[in-house]
Input
Amino acid sequence: MSPSPPSSIYEPVTFTPYSSRVVYINDKDRWDLNAAAVILDNFIVVIDPMMYPNQARAFRNQIETIYRLPVKFLFISHEHADHVWGMGGFLDKDIEIIAHRQLAEILKEKFTTAWNQQVIDDWKVEEPEMAPMLELMNFKAPTITFEEKYVVHDGELSVEFFHSGGHTGSSSYAYFPADRILFGADEVNAHVWPFISDPSGSPERWITFYQHILNMEIDMIIPGHGPLVGKDHIQEHLDFLLKLKSAVKTELAVGKELTVENVPKFGYPPAEEWQIPKAVEFLNTFYKSQTLS
Ligand SMILES: [Zn+2]
Output
């Protein structure tokens, strides 16, 4: 069910402050995965829960202790396990879970099938070394859902959530205007090839998302994976997505398909070998269906 146990599930987690109100945590062993938290005046909002619930619990305990505020909201950006499983680390307290409406439906289904209690129990038997993580693995359906936008207010401060729909159909991102910081989720995988093969995703929505955020007031972006980046990095990714689109359309126009060999060059490598072949397959299918419709 999972890759081999990462060393980080046993190691203490430490967060990094970005500003007096924004902190983030990174797991090098899990594709450079990030989660973050916004410290408001009366409570904390967590942006994605990490992959492992014991990591998530440690993160929450640290920030609640240091900032002397409770976590009141947990935002889930999309349905991939590395952005959902950590949820179990938050469920001992009454925390609101925010997600896009479509994501809530997908999660409700996954919680009763692929990730149900029987699956977790079987996993404990198969991989007893994962016990520290599996003991806390637990799921709950989102309690707040939105279509295009949702805003959490605390006095003058706010954290905003928006649907993007590029990396997966349900993908969303967050923005903290007071610090001009964007939490890009997996539409922003910094310094690596884009993860552009989920069948529910849309390269067109992804391009629109990049174009939109390039016009937002942003000083820094905390990506779903990888180091913090600025808008210049988004421009590089946007240029590449446009090149990819054009390469696919050029092939389709002459009755052919894009192949791995004629994928345009990009300055950042794939994080996984399967990324480029899967992306090619997905993009051919996606733009072919667009031509037909
Ligand atoms: Zn993802």
Notes: The first strand starts at residue 16 and ends at 17.
